[in-house]
Amino acid sequence: PTPASASNASPSQNTATANWPKPSSRPTRRSTPIFATLFLAPPTRGGSGIRSVALQPGAEFLQLAMQTEAESSGRFIVEIGDPSGSTDWRSQVIRGRSDNGRTTISVRVPAASLKKGMRGVRLLDAGAGSEILDEHVVRIER
Asked: pTM for the complete prediction?
């Protein structure tokens, strides 16, 4: 007797592939988030031009670092919004790191909070009634 071929097998005999696990419909989570970075030096007289940052598809965060030479309480808030003053995103109170008369503030901004186009980035002194210490205009590209 010859063995039955797959084409001659009954449906109940040809089920080897039907019992394989189905691929998950949920996307797999990356172990490392995708992010863009932007460094803003202290503003200078005459301005230093408009900085641009491109958020690639899938970017989860913008890692923003700012330096200031302004006197402050050492506690800061970063705001991002329309250059005229409305706010799209605001950080919690952050402590800066001082070195050689400059203080560096670093914050991770959710990419979904950043609107495309010209945005104002403001550094506020959290200990002085939210006084604006530095302002920058940045172009967000997607």
From this structure: 0.73
